[in-house]
Each structure stands twice: as structure tokens, then as C-alpha cells.
What we know:
By secondary structure, the chain is α+β, with helices and mostly antiparallel strands. The protein folds into two domains: 1-36, no CATH class; 38-132, TATA-Binding Protein, CATH 3.30.310.10. 29% of the residues lie in helices and 22% in strands. It has three helices and six strands; from the N terminus they run αβαββββαβ. It has helices at 12-25, 52-58, 99-116; strands at residues 40-45, 62-63, 72-76, 81-85, 90-96, 129-132. Strand 4 (81-85) and strand 5 (90-96) form a beta hairpin. It is elongated. The chain starts with 11 loop residues before the first helix and ends with a strand.
Amino acid sequence: MVVTGLEFVQNAEKAVSKLLKKIKKFGIRSSDPEITIQNIVANGDLHTLINLNKAVLLMEYVMYEPEVFPGLIYNMKDPRAVFLLFSTGKFVCTGIKKEEILERAILKLKREINNMDVTSEKIIEDEFELTFL
């Protein structure tokens, strides 16, 4: 079974348990499932404008075609993650299985962007807000 749309990783067990109770009402029996996180999708805001035209020239593993898609696609190698980065400073991150790795990836993204001088103002590196999708 695939469960999507949870706001927090910790809610996975509760969601699966609720679903199994509903299925049981229909006479379908199931053993306790093994729950594994396959992908976390989160969005956030860096709270600064980003010059994507400059960023695409300075960053590695990026693709930016504004006539096709308004965001820069960044394939981070370590930790492994994919970011959709927008000029408003907003981003979507996917391809991660653990929240700790997500935090590491975001902090690395912020450091890289700060070091490249592609923002309207410096990003506070240890601060970010996330929403899990």
C-alpha cells in the first residue's frame, strides 16, 4: 500500500493503522505491515530573491530553461536530492527518505547559494521553514 499526503513522517504509522482498521471492517485480514519511507517531498522558502540566470552559470548539476519551466532544477549529489528552485526563493525538495537528510540538503543548498552571491540578501543558514507535501 502507498500512503501519501502526510504532513509529518511520524504520522505514517497512525495513517496505516487507521486504514487497516477500515479494511478489517470489510472482513479483509492483514498482518502488521512493515512501514518504509520511500520519498519525502517538502517545500520551503529561503526568504530572498535568487538570480537563477546567474545561478545556472555557477552551479553544477543544474538545468534551467525558463521558457519551458520557471524553476531551476538542481540535482544535488551529496546528500542525494532534487530541488526545484524558484526566483522568489521558494523551493521544492524531493528524493529523500529521512528528515535528517532533508535538513542536511537544505543547509547545503543555503551555503552554496550564499557562497555564489546569487541572492538579493544573505540567507540565514540555520533557519528554514518547511512544509511536507
